[in-house]
Amino acid sequence: MDILSIDFGTYSVKFLHLFLERKSVILKGFSESLLPIHDVDTKRYEPPIEQQCEIIKNYLHQKQFVGKIIVNIPSELTTSRYLTLPTEKLKKASLMIPYQLDENLPFPINESHYSSILYKQNKSVKAIVNITKLSDFDIFYNELLSHDILPGMITTNLFSLHTYLNLAQSNQIVPNTPEKSFLLLDIGHRTTKGYLIKNNAVVANHICGIAGAFINETIAQMYKISLEEAITYKHTNCFFLNQSQYSEVDEDQREFAKLMQQTMTPLLRDIHQWILGYRIKNIESIECVYLTGGTSNIKNIVGFLTEELELPVKKFLPLATLRKPKINISQSLESSGTNAYLHGLTSLSKMANINFLKGEYSPTSTQTVPLYSLAFISLRVFILSILIMGALILENVILTKNDKIITTNLNSILGKKSLNLAEGYKAQLKKNPDTLLKTVQKKENAIEQEINTLMSAISINAVNPLFKFNAMLTPEMRIHITSFKNSEEELSVVFKGEILEHLQALEKRLEKDTSLQKSQIELNAKNKVLSLKKVMVK
Question: pLDDT digit string (tens) for 26-74?
């Protein structure tokens, strides 16, 4: 199955073309389209949905993709809640969610559109709920439709990560992480998202406004350069330093490293709070931190965070494990394409609730299917139905005709005297053919046995004289039998030799054999051939 996974990034839109097999995922294509800089960095907390949809529309028009399209709701439009529901039944737990959601939601529950993941833990049900304001989702969805984008699934980064962890836990397609508890930091362009994972389940997630765009603005303001120049500098020359490295660099590099550290201080403070909250709630510490996202490609960010957080820090690169024939992807693209890959894996999930296309937004609703698409599909289904019905009718006519022919032939065969079948058996041809078949097979087996017995007896008697003639020959005689015929009334055999004396000796043996009476034995000395004809074997 072909999947086009689209990540609505605020710096760029990522397109990941995947082919899902039963036990593997193949990468067929990856591309990234940048948003205009002036559209990216104005109104930081409002996602540029219109520009993103325009890019996607152009991509779909150019590629003419056929398959399932998966998109994500921008994180700025969603909030999440983690619930523990006092029941062991998933259906009952699903009905309890609206009443269990926090009263301090940023909007009334009746004005929300949400999806949830439910899983059992001990004697209760855990729920991960992603919620978006109904009006915001409606704008997002209608923007997709207005650009001729018809997704098969709309999910979120949180649900995509949960799907990945489930697959990893069962070792399906993706590898499992060795740590039981860790923090996944997705350092993107406008926001940094933190996901706290315990036993392959997300137990909390947070968001912080310190990310790539904030670093761009800081560099632009500090060095009095344009935003475009700051972005280029960040991608090519930006770096972090450990404390031990400050003495190894010049003054300008030290000043820049201090600037980067000050820029990241609010994020580091938030991360410490996230980790502390996890430790208080779960009475255990996380084992390590995983990094992903485009901004995680800054030089030495792993070493910097390792020192600041006092925890092991690793890169989270699930794209590196993909089969990607004839496609080379750099590690920086593997980091920025992580979310698109995780969205694609949601197609393997058996949980229908991870899809926000439900209710009035369900693909089965006529509101979500344009009339031209409905007519297009209906016409082809109608034509296909007529073809199938015609084929079935033709097949029925042919089978009926063949059935009549076969029945006539069988009745003719069953009427033969050689089968010696009673009239009662003939009547069972249509009602109970199995019984009739067994009767005929028994007769056939009996006849075959008699024939085999007769053939065996004839074969043995016919070959006996040949054995006798062959026994008269010795290797030294250099004589071989060139012809042998035997029937009930006559026998003929022809010997061919190389030495005349040997043929003469054989002639004497045949004449002395008392079982070969009245035989005609002729020796052709010139051709060295000895023949015995018309001998009655007694």
Answer: 899 899 999 987 544 444 456 789 999 999 999 999 999 989 999 999 9
Q: Please report, for the chain, the start and end positions of each structural domain, with discontinuous segments joined by +.
A: 2-369, 473-533
Helix crossing, 134-146 with 49-63: angle to 10°? 30
The whole-angstrom separation of Cα 310 and Cα 275 is 12
Integer Cα distance of 298 and 472 in angstroms? 100
- Residue 217 contacts residue 202 (beta carbons within 8 Å): no
Task: Tell me the backbone φ, ψ of residue 222, rounded to 5 degrees.
Answer: -70, -40
- Rounded Cα–Cα distance for residues 174 and 181 (Å): 18
- Are 66 and 2 contacting, i.e. CB atoms less than 8 angstroms apart? yes
Confidence at residue 458, expressed as pLDDT on a 0 to 100 scale: 57
Q: How far apart are the first and last CA of the chain?
A: 81
DSSP line for 367-404: GGS-HHHHHHHHHHHHHHHHHHHHHHHHHHHHHHHHHH
Cβ count within 10 A of residue 316: 21
By CB atoms closer than 10 A (0-12, 13-18, 19+), residue 264 is buried
Q: pLDDT, tens digit, for every residue of 181-195?
A: 999 999 999 999 999
Mean pLDDT of the chain: 86
Tokens of 298: 């800054």
Beta strands in 231-389 (DSSP E): 288-292, 313-315
CATH number, span 2-369: 3.30.420.40
Confidence of residue 114 (pLDDT cuts 50, 70, 90): very high
Q: Which of 403-412, 421-430, 431-440, 499-508 has the highest mean pLDDT?
A: 499-508
pLDDT at 349: 75
130 CB-near residues (< 8 Å, 6+ apart): 73, 78, 79, 80, 114, 115, 116, 156, 158, 159, 356
CA distance linking residue 244 with residue 242, whole number of Å: 5
Query: Could you tell me if 493 and 469 are in contact, meaning their C-beta atoms sit under 8 angstroms apart?
Result: yes
Answer whether 245's CB lies under 8 Å from 261's CB: no
Which CA distances in Å does 138 have to 43, 57, 363, 385? 20, 19, 15, 36
The residue among 276, 167, 271, 257 whose CA lies nearest residue 215 is 257
The pLDDT tens digits for 145-189 are: 999 999 999 999 999 999 999 888 877 678 888 899 999 999 999
CA distance 184 to 417: 87
Claim: this prediction has a pTM higher than 0.90: no
